[in-house]
Design brief:
The protein is of the alpha+beta class and 879 residues long. Helices cover 41% and strands 21% of the residues. Bound molecules: (3S)-3,7-diaminoheptanoic acid (B3K) and zinc ion. The site of (3S)-3,7-diaminoheptanoic acid has 12 residues, from strand 20 and helix 2. It comes from Oceanibaculum pacificum.
């Protein structure tokens, strides 16, 4: 960076001096250049200073002319800077006409208007609209948009934008136009435009009030047969939002466009969602069960934004979690209702621990509502999304489903059509329920994952049980001191003899209040005394993960085994198993580093066997319970992450379990076979368990590898094919390369399936993975310009292959840093994501720290570095 980039602060928010009330856009798409004519109806804010100029955001555009109220504006009255245009002497009301030239063909950042294959599309969140037209590009400017698109009819037969279609026609020279009008005010980040050769898949939906909405999914011709699941997911989402929140869709048409080049998953543009094709296209032979679930969840997420994000939007980008945390919570609940609730919760918590907990403990740690940023695109984080969703879930836990719904209703009643803050949401929840959530607000203010310890004491004579809870919120960058958080603690007491949940009566209460209740933990140290406790209990705390904390409850291995078997809360049964496995593996890591043997207790193998063979338990749940905590999860529990020790311990435990339970695993593997192509919940659960067991068996011996090879050859669905290929790809046996070659041969024409082929190799446990990844960059299917390819090969290696990325000689670090530098000049957002694993450099041993730090410094010194990568690099070194 030649100059230090500006830090944007939440405290500096001021309302804009002007707003754009209406914008009429004319986008003339030509080969090699696009001419944009924007007519802006500008209104001055009565409170502005007398001489306040009109400042319009704009970037990478060439100005052709600027007119105000029909007259050319003389050059002395305006100046064009690299990131804005400043116009002086603008009256209270003015009509500006601005014509500019842009080059979507050259746009490799994939922000603004760009080309994906032969199609033109847009991505405007967070600040992409300023690359299309000069505008007040901030979310509190909600304007009415009309858009006319003009293009060559043969190469761009389909022309789409937000809202409803209001006209179309032919023009001379084989060109045509279409006009769209969006009746709802929106910020520019929700603008979208698509032009290209696209095939529509059509359906419709009748809303609760009886209106028929046209549904369209636009894909590249040839992919129409892969849209069924996305369309079903959309219709289910529309119904669910009506039923659960009383929210109906509001336009006559809802469109989704699938594109091949996209920086993230999808985008909720009003009436015209643009999706990464990965989250739309699916057929059983090309997409895995996980892909199906992700598609359902992401289609729902973007659809739900229509109310939480679009109708009510954010005042400024610090409030991002207002729409993202809330919408993630809504999509999680939707998926839980559509599938198995507790399995969904387990998956979400796994995700939170894998991504958000490390973020909250590192140099990029920030509150759910951040206080400052350099590049807003760096703040689309696990904290804003996933921890934000946990915060919303805590309102739901504290207020109950009904109270939460009352709060939502009031929020929409008050704020429909407005750009608001997280505070406004909290106040709506308070007012609708008549409660005071002052302390709860700390969840928005304080970064860091609270550490909670719990200790219990049973007094057999007095029949009382006293539970003492202590919490600390660790210091994070810029926040050395923390206040206690309000923790909703869903809990029960499981009788050690009866194995049943005991009645819960707190000292001072007249009667027991059920066997499962939510306690409010508000102090740094707080005790709860239960009376009438007839037998010694084992406490089951934070049931369903009712607060995003790290809990240390002082359980013995016997307590954990007991809870695994007897807790009525399915989540906590899973949690107990994870805690037991985590503890065992950490002991093994310690033994290894002390030069002792890594021992696996028989009791652990027995507990594992009991879950494995319990036919009364749903296979989907068993698959979750038998999957060991990841290497990343274990690393989180260590002061200094012992990369090699963790890998060795986990692999050793996997082998021991497979060795000791080979007969049971093999029998169940065969018993879980699913005939033909079935995509229902039970079939998905069986495949999950079967493929988990395949992983154990294939890592053990030649028999297991042969099972994998046989499964690979006979697989009828992509889930089974990929699961087998993962096992084969980990092995250095010739069978591995044979399978990879066969997969390549069959699928090289399908970009999304090739992404899987890249990822499997990037995450392979083979010792030569780095050199294979380097070679794969030369594969004709790979391109640094396509974000999916970068993520599936380079991202998978950096974030999903701990031993490869953290190789002791630093070769993995050097390689990824080289790619970050190469990518940064093309696509800063993708470069910055790829770079993120470096931020955790202080967590490793001294030798790795030095290697990582040297790479961060090298990246920081690269000429012309983007703000995106600069922010991660500089904060990593400082924090
Ligand atoms: N709102 C978009 C994400 C935009 C990311 C910009 N860097 C997708 C979503 O969360 O639904
Ligand atoms: Zn979202």
């Amino acid at each position: 960076m030649p100059t230090e980039p500006t830090v944007i602060r939440r405290a500096d928010y001021t309302p804009p001096d002007y707003r754009v009330d209406r914008i009429d856009l004319h986008v003339d798409i030509r080969d090699g250049e696009t001419i944009v004519t924007a007519t802006l109806a500008v209104v001055g804010n009565p409170d502005r200073a007398a001489n306040a100029p009109l400042v319009l955001d704009g970037q990478d555009q060439t100005l052709i002319y600027l007119k105000m109220d029909g007259e050319d504006v003389p050059p002395c009255r305006y100046v064009v800077q690299p990131e804005r245009m400043v116009v002086e002497e603008v009256p209270d009301r003015a009509l500006l006409e601005i014509r500019t030239r842009i080059h979507p063909e050259k746009n490799t950042a994939l922000e603004g208007l760009y080309k994906s294959g032969s199609m033109y599309c847009t991505q405007c969140e967070a600040e992409g609209f300023r690359r299309i037209a000069y505008f007040i590009d901030r979310p509190d400017n909600m304007a009415l948009f009309t858009t006319t698109i003009e293009a060559d009819k043969a190469s761009c037969p389909v022309l789409l934008s937000n809202g409803n279609p209001v006209g179309e026609g032919d023009l001379p020279d084989g060109r045509h136009w279409a006009k769209w009008e969006d009746p709802f005010r929106k910020p520019a980040y929700l603008f979208a435009l698509v032009a290209g050769q696209l095939a529509p898949v059509k359906d419709s939906f009748v809303t609760a009030s009886g209106r028929t909405v046209d549904l369209r999914i636009y894909v590249e011709p040839g992919n129409e047969d892969k849209c069924g699941h996305a369309m079903e997911s959309l219709k289910k989402s529309m119904r669910w939002d009506e039923e659960v929140f009383g929210l109906e869709y509001d336009l006559d048409i809802f469109m989704i466009v699938a594109v091949g080049d996209f920086n993230m998953g999808a985008m909720e543009n009003k009436g015209l969602n643009v999706f990464n094709a990965k989250y739309v296209l699916a057929k059983p032979d090309t997409a895995t069960d996980t892909d199906y679930q992700l598609i359902e969840g992401i289609i729902a997420h973007e659809y739900f934004h229509n109310w939480t994000g679009n109708r009510v939007t954010c005042r400024d980008w610090f409030q991002l979690s207002l729409k993202e945390g809330l919408t993630v919570f809504r999509d999680q609940e939707f998926s839980a209702d559509m599938n198995a609730r507790s399995v969904k919760r387990i998956q979400d918590v796994r995700g939170l621990r894998a991504a958000q907990f490390p973020e909250d403990a590192g140099p990029m740690a920030h509150p759910v509502r951040p206080d400052s940023y350099i590049e807003i695109n760096n703040f689309y984080t696990a904290t804003v999304y996933e921890k934000g969703a946990e915060v919303v879930r805590m309102y739901h836990t504290l207020l109950g489903a009904e109270g939460f719904r009352k709060g939502m209703d009031l929020y929409f009643q008050r704020h429909d059509g407005q750009a608001v803050t997280c505070e406004d949401f909290c106040v709506a929840m308070e007012d609708a329920n008549g409660v005071d959530l002052t302390q709860f607000r700390r969840w928005y203010e304080q970064a860091g994952t609270p550490h909670v310890t719990a200790r219990g004491h049973y007094d057999a004579a007095a029949k009382t049980y006293t539970l003492t809870i202590e919490q600390t919120v660790p210091p994070t960058p810029g926040q050395p001191e923390k206040q206690p958080a309000l923790l909703p603690m869903a809990m029960g007491l499981v009788g050690s003899v009866s194995k049943a949940d005991l009645p819960l009566q707190l000292d001072g209460e007249n009667a027991a209040q059920g066997t499962d209740r939510v306690l409010r933990v508000t102090e740094t140290r707080q005790s709860f005394t239960f009376v009438g406790v007839e037998e010694a209990p084992i406490p089951s705390l934070f049931r369903g993960f009712s607060a995003p904390v790290k809990l240390e409850a002082g359980y013995s291995a016997d307590d954990l085994t007991f809870l695994m078997a007897n807790d009525s809360d399915e989540f906590n049964r899973w949690e107990a198993g994870q805690a037991l496995a985590r503890r065992l593996m950490l002991d093994m890591v310690a033994a290894r580093s002390a030069g002792r043997e890594m021992a696996v207790a028989d009791s652990f193998v027995d507990a594992f066997r009991r879950v494995l063979t319990d036919e009364g338990v749903d296979p989907a749940f068993r698959a979750q319970a038998l999957a060991l905590p990841s290497e990343g999860d274990l690393g989180e529990s260590m002061a200094t992450i012992d990369v090699d020790g963790i890998h060795a311990a986990r692999e050793h435990l996997r082998r021991v379990l497979a060795e000791r339970l080979k007969p049971e695993m093999t029998t169940i593997y065969h018993a879980m076979a699913v005939r033909g192509v079935q995509l229902d919940g039970p079939a998905i659960g069986k495949r999950a368990l079967r493929n988990l067991l395949l992983g154990y068996l294939a890592g053990l011996d030649a028999d297991g590898l042969a099972l994998a090879e046989a499964q690979f050859q006979s697989a009828q669905v992509m889930t089974d094919s990929v699961a087998a290929l993962v096992c084969l790809g980990d092995s250095t046996d010739a069978a591995g390369d044979r399978a990879l070659a066969a997969f390549h041969e069959r699928w090289r024409g399908n970009a999304l399936v090739m992404d899987k082929w890249f990822s499997i190799q990037a995450m392979s446990k083979r010792p030569d993975t780095l050199s294979r990844v380097k070679a794969l960059m030369g594969d004709p299917a790979f391109s640094l310009k396509n974000p999916n390819k970068v993520r599936s090969l380079l991202g998978a290696f950096a974030a999903g292959n701990p031993t490869g990325f953290h190789a002791a000689d630093g070769a993995g670090y050097r390689f990824i840093a080289d790619q970050v530098i190469a990518l940064d000049s093309m696509n800063p957002q993708v470069a910055s994501r790829l770079f993120s694993p470096f931020a955790r450099w202080r967590r490793f041993d001294a030798a790795r720290q030095a290697l990582l730090k040297a790479e961060i410094e090298r990246v920081l010194a690269a000429p012309g570095l983007s703000k995106d990568v600069y922010e991660i690099a500089s904060k990593s070194l400082a924090g």
